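forwarding from the other thread:

> can someone predict this with arginine?

sure thing
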Amino acid sequence: MTVVRIWAGRRRAPRTGRLAAPSPSRARTRPEPVLRPEPDVDVEAVQAAAEEFLQLFHSEDPRRGAVEPRLAQVRREIDLTGTYWHTQAELTFGARVAWRNNARCIGRLYWQSLQVRDRRTVSTAREIAEHCFDHLREAHNDGKIRPTISVFAPETPARPAPRIWNEQLVRYAGHQQPDGRIIGDPRYRTFTSELVRRGWRRPVGAFDVLPLVVETMDEGVRMFELPESAVHEVPLEHPELPWFAGLELRWHAVPVISNSRLVIGGVSYPTAPFNGWYLGTEIGARNLGDSDRYNLVPEVAERMGLDTSDESTLWRDRALVELNRAVLHSFQTNGVSVTDHHTESRRFLVHLEREERAGRSCPADWSWIVPPMSGSQTPVFHRYYDTEDQLPNFITDPDATHRALHGSPPAFS
Ligand code: ARG
């Protein structure tokens, strides 16, 4: 999309949103009109965001030395091209701080350990898919899950970045039946039917891994089946209830979010899949428990022989606990990293303290941090948090969210 139009010096809100405001002192006169690619680039906003990021990087890492030489270089590059290329060290720091700043994540204690895979020069859809499959294998690491991010090409004025449509690299299809029932994950029922419309064929099961959908400017929309070697799953059983295994439930070992945009210093990376390890409740309380997901609480309660005729027996709560015990137990016996919400809550408070000691504010969204069960039993419930967003960060764009759930609209048509 190398649309060349007349640059009329208009100030536009950057498409990337939430960038630092352009600083008035940096305003400069430019000859008008000038031919420039992509009219949406707000050069001053990019300059300001780059400067803010580089200052942060150099101030947090004394080994970096003075920031001015790098700043001068980046300013020139932005003036010429509308963007700039991060050094590997900047990319690594930026990705780690994006995690540190992500207000929804309870697992941020280990932000400095994030493994950053620089894949910015990979360009074909097939290669992108292959590198994502490698990501899954490397991050799984025989069950000792490594928090990992793969950063693909940035958005530039000359060339739009590739996109992954899927919400995560591994997700299960939702197959709508003629009687209205859904086999699989109802969250992805319209995504699944859109892929079927585009030619995807699969037997109808409850845990069918969706193909990876990669869209590039040159190739359009392409689908790739995940190889078995990339998909690690844990079959679920309960430590005491023998019938539980008969439900034939499973879940994938590594949650790799693939439709969030990584924003570092005025540069956007829309394809930057990243993972941590699971908190048990994400699977047991939400994916398997939510009534609009696998909705397993009534069935588990039934099998447990609970009295479901009256809410005040708290059959939902009791069944939910056993479902969650099954998840934690199965991951543990399979040697796959997982944590429980009590442990992770305490770790998060350690993280908050460390951030405070480092003189930083730690943005946190209470409604995401507090676990979906037994909230008041965890220390994160009993306090307030800083809420102001900070960059670098991971940003969820509405069109990317829509694509991940409904398989539309395409990014480039
Ligand atoms: N909640 C999402 C899921 O159940 C995963 C989100 C990221 N979670 C994580 N532990 N890094 O798949």
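Residues 1-37 have pLDDT under 50 and may be disordered. thats all i got for now
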